[in-house]
From TrEMBL, chain A:
Matches recorded under Gene3D superfamilies: alpha/beta hydrolase
Protein name from the UniProt record: Acetyl xylan esterase domain-containing protein
SUPFAM superfamilies in the record: alpha/beta-Hydrolases
Acetyl xylan esterase domain sequence ranges: 2-228
GO biological process: polysaccharide metabolic process
Automatic annotation (TrEMBL), chain B:
Binding site for substrate: 86
Enzyme active site: 169 (nucleophile), 256 (charge relay system), 285 (charge relay system)
Top-level taxon of origin: Bacteria
Protein name: Acetyl xylan esterase domain-containing protein
Xref: Gene3D superfamilies: alpha/beta hydrolase
MF (Gene Ontology): carboxylic ester hydrolase activity
Gene Ontology biological process terms, A to Z: polysaccharide metabolic process
PANTHER family: CEPHALOSPORIN-C DEACETYLASE
Length: 281, 308
C-alpha cells in the first residue's frame, strides 16, 4: 500500500465511525477563567479515547489549541495560562493513562508495538486518535475555525497535514523523524526501543518501511499551516523545515525558560492572543 | 521581581516525624525483600546486561524496576538507584551501566509496572488520601525507593559502600527522603529541580502541574487545608533534609515554573551534609539540561568511583 492509500484508508475508517462525544464537567479544574470537561470520543478501531477540554469564560469564539500526546504514559493537563486564552483539548491517545481501559501502553514497548507491518503498527491508531481529536475540536461552536493550532511532536505535523483547517503548528522533541538514523546515536529511550526490537529478530528494512509512513518529513509537504520547528541541530532538521511549505526553525537554546517563552509568544502571535509566561516573575 | 534565593519557605516538623517513618521502615522489614531478577536478552547489549527486577515493599506490595549491569570493568560496581519523575515511567538505565554503575531504575507503586494494586492515576498521586498522613498515597511510594536501595545492598556485584541516588523533579525530592531514611548507606545524591519540598508553599508560587493538583483539591475541599498541610509535612523534603549525610548535588532552574526555585534554595539551606548548588539562569524545570548531566556524571563519579 502506498503512502496516500495508507492514510486515506485511515481517514475512511474514521469517517465511518461516529465520534459520539461525551462531556463531563470537571469542577476542580473549573474556575473564573475557564470551564473544564473530561471528554471521551470514539476513534478508529473503534477505540474510546480521552481528552481534557477547557473553554475560556466569556464570549467566543476563541482560538483553539490541540495538544497532541507526548511519548509517555501521562500528559499533563493544560496549564491555566492556556486554558484562559484558548479552547484547549489535551488528548490521551489509546493506551495512555485515562485512555487505557482496554489497552495499556508499555514503556518501553509502545514504539515498536506491531511495527513489523504498517497495518498493525500502533501508531496508525494513535495517529487516528489525533485526527479524531482535531475533528472534534474544529467542530465545537466555541472555536474560531480560522484560529486552530496544534502543538506537540511529529503527531502535530501529521495531524495538520491531514486536517488542513489547522492554521498553526508548533513542534519539538520529535521521536519519529529520521528515527532509523537517530537510533544509532545512543542507547537512550525511546529510540533504543527500535534497537531492542531489532535484537529480538526483526529487520531494519521491515521497521524502516513502517516508520516511513510516520516520518514527519513525508507529511510535511501537505501542511499548509504556519509551522515552527524547535531544533537542536539545525543541520539535522533542514530537510524537514525545507519540506514544510510555511515552516520556520527555532534554534533551541536549552535555556528552557527562554525557549518556553518564545514558543508561547510565537503561538500567541499566530492566533492573536497575548503572550503569557508560565514563570511568574 | 521574585527573590527566589531568599524567600521564606517554612514547614512545620511533626513531633512524631521520625517515629512515623521508623514505623514505615519497620513494616517493610516484616516482609522478605524477595528480589526476583530475570535477564532480558533482547534488552541487553554488548555493553550492558538488563534484568527485569521486582521486590517486596511496604505493605507487602511487589514493586518492579529495571536493573542494568555493565559487562565490562570489574565487579563490584558502585550501585545507583535512579528515581522517576512524576509523569515519567522509568526507562532502562543502560546509559548509567555504560558508565560503570549497577543501576536500578525503580518504578514505585502507581507507576505502570507496579500499579496492579495501587493505581491513583495521573493526575491524582499528589492528592491521593492527602488528608491522612497514614494512608497518603506517597507513603508506600517513598518507601518503595528505600527498598530499591535494599535490593542493591543484596547484590553480590554491587559494592555496598558505594551506593548513590539520582533523579530530577520527583526523583530529586525522593532522593532526599531516601538518603535521609538510609543515611549510613547512601554515599551521594544528585538532586535536580527537587519536587516535594515546600509542598504547601509551592502551589502559591506556580499554577503548573503537578502542584496545581493541590490548588484543584483545595478548590473543591477548602475546609481541608489544615489537614492537607498536616499530611504533607510528613513528606516534605525540608523535613527530611537534616538527616541526609551523603554529599548532595542540587541543581536548579531559576525560572522553574514546575518546582519553584524558592523551594530548591530552601532545601539547600536546611541540608547539613556536604552540598553543592548549581543554578541556571533562564532555565525552567530542565534545570540546566542537557549540559548539567555532565556535572551530575562528574559528581557521582567523584563519590562513587565507577571503573569502566
Amino acid at each position: 500500500m502506498d503512502f496516500l492509500e495508507y492514510w486515506n484508508a485511515v481517514d475512511d475508517e474514521l469517517a465511518a465511525i461516529p465520534a459520539r462525544p461525551v462531556l463531563d464537567l470537571v469542577p476542580q479544574r473549573t474556575d473564573s477563567a475557564a470551564t473544564t470537561y473530561a471528554v471521551r470520543i470514539t476513534s478508529a478501531g473503534p477505540y474510546r479515547v480521552f481528552g481534557s477540554l477547557s473553554i475560556p469564560v466569556g464570549d467566543g469564539p476563541f482560538p483553539a489549541l490541540l495538544q497532541v500526546p507526548r511519548y509517555g504514559s501521562v500528559n499533563n493537563m493544560a496549564h491555566p495560562n492556556d486554558r484562559s486564552r484558548y479552547v484547549v483539548l489535551t488528548l490521551m491517545h489509546r493506551g495512555q493513562r485515562l485512555a487505557d481501559e482496554f489497552f495499556r501502553a508499555a514503556y518501553p514497548g509502545l514504539l515498536t508495538l506491531g511495527i513489523d507491518d504498517p497495518s498493525t503498527y500502533i501508531y496508525r491508531g494513535i495517529a487516528a486518535d489525533c485526527l479524531r481529536a482535531a475533528e472534534f475540536l474544529l467542530g465545537l461552536r466555541e472555536v474560531d475555525p480560522a484560529r486552530v493550532a496544534v502543538v506537540g511532536n511529529e503527531l502535530a505535523i501529521l495531524t495538520a497535514a491531514r486536517r488542513p483547517a489547522i492554521s498553526a503548528v508548533r513542534v519539538s522533541d520529535l521521536v519519529l523523524y529520521r528515527a532509523m538514523e537517530a537510533r544509532l546515536w545512543s542507547s537512550h529511550y525511546p529510540l533504543e526501543e527500535l534497537n531492542d526490537h531489532l535484537r529480538s529478530g526483526s529487520s531494519a528494512e521491515v521497521i524502516g518501511r513502517t516508520l516511513s509512513y510516520f516520518d514527519p518529513i513525508r507529511h510535511a509537504p501537505a501542511v499548509t499551516a504556519r509551522t515552527l520547528v524547535g531544533v537542536e541541530d539545525p543541520g539535522w532538521y533542514v530537510p524537514l523545515v525545507d519540506a514544510l511549505p510555511a515552516g520556520e526553525a527555532y534554534q533551541v537554546t536549552h535555556l528552557d525558560g527562554t525557549d518556553a517563552d518564545f514558543y508561547d509568544a510565537w503561538l500567541a502571535g499566530q492566533v492573536g492572543v497575548p503572550a503569557m509566561s508560565k514563570f511568574v516573575r | 521581581m521574585r527573590d527566589v534565593e531568599n524567600a521564606t519557605v517554612e514547614v512545620a516538623r511533626p513531633d512524631d516525624f521520625d517515629e512515623f517513618w521508623a514505623a514505615g521502615l519497620a513494616d517493610c522489614a516484616t516482609y522478605p525483600l524477595d528480589p526476583v531478577l530475570t535477564e532480558m536478552p533482547t534488552l541487553s547489549t554488548p555493553l550492558v546486561v538488563v534484568y527485569d527486577v521486582s521486590y517486596v515493599s511496604f505493605g507487602g506490595l511487589r514493586v518492579s524496576g529495571w536493573y542494568a549491569v555493565p559487562r565490562g570493568g570489574e565487579a563490584p560496581y558502585p550501585g545507583l538507584v535512579t528515581i522517576p519523575g512524576y509523569i515519567s515511567e522509568p526507562t532502562i538505565p543502560k546509559e548509567w551501566a555504560e558508565l560503570g554503575y549497577a543501576a536500578l531504575a525503580v518504578a514505585p507503586r502507581g507507576k505502570l509496572r507496579s500499579n496492579a494494586v495501587f493505581n491513583p492515576g495521573y493526575p491524582g498521586l499528589l492528592t491521593n488520601n492527602i488528608v491522612d498522613h497514614n494512608t497518603y498515597g506517597y507513603r508506600g511510594f517513598y518507601l518503595d525507593v528505600v527498598r530499591a536501595v535494599d535490593v542493591l545492598l543484596e547484590r553480590p556485584e554491587v559494592d555496598s559502600s558505594r551506593i548513590g541516588l539520582a533523579g530530577s523533579s520527583q526523583g530529586g525530592g525522593l532522593g532526599i527522603s531516601t538518603a535521609a531514611l538510609r543515611p549510613d548507606v547512601i554515599k551521594a545524591v544528585a538532586c535536580g529541580a527537587p519536587y516535594l519540598c515546600g509542598i504547601m508553599t509551592a502551589p502559591t508560587l506556580t499554577r503548573s502541574y503537578p502542584y496545581e493538583e493541590i490548588n484543584e483539591y483545595l478548590r473543591l475541599h477548602p475546609k481541608d487545608v489544615d489537614r492537607v498541610r498536616e499530611t504533607v509535612a510528613y513528606y516534605d523534603g525540608l523535613n527530611f533534609a537534616p538527616a541526609v549525610k551523603a554529599p548532595t548535588l542540587i541543581y536548579l532552574g531559576l525560572e522553574d515554573d514546575v518546582c519553584p526555585p524558592e523551594t530548591g534554595f530552601a532545601l539547600h539551606r536546611v541540608l547539613t551534609c556536604p552540598k553543592t548548588l548549581r543554578t541556571y539562569e533562564n532555565c525552567a524545570h530542565h534545570a540546566g539540561l542537557p549540559g548539567v548531566m555532565r556535572v551530575v556524571e562528574d559528581f557521582l563519579a567523584d563519590h562513587l568511583k565507577p571503573v569502566i
